[in-house]
Amino acid sequence: MKHIMTINKANLKESAQKGGCGNCQASCQSACKTSCTVANQKCERDEK
Amino acid sequence: MIHKYYLGGLYIVLDVNSGGVHIVDELTYDLLDYAAPPFAEECPQEILDKLSDKHDPEEVRECYRELAGLYEDKILFSADDYEKYAKFTVASPVKAMCLHISHDCNLRCKYCFASTGDFGTGRKLMPLEIGKKAIDFLLENSGNRKNLELDFFGGEPLMNFGVVKEVVEYARSREAEFGKTFRFTITTNGMLLTDDKIDFINKEMSNVVLSIDGRKEVNDRMRPGIGGKGSYDVILPKFKKLVDARSKDKDYYVRGTFTKYNLDFAEDVFSLRDAGFDQISVEPVVCDAQYDYALTEAELPAVFAEYEELAQRLLENDRQGKHFNFFHFMIDLDQGPCAIKRLRGCGCGNEYVAITPDGDIYPCHQFVGIEEYKMGNLMDGTFDMDMKQTFAETHIYNKPSCRDCWARFYCSGGCNANNYMYMGDIHTAHTLSCELEKKRVECAIMIQAVKSLERGQAE
Question: Which terminus of chain B has a lower count of CB atoms within 10 Å, N or C?
Answer without folding.
Answer: C
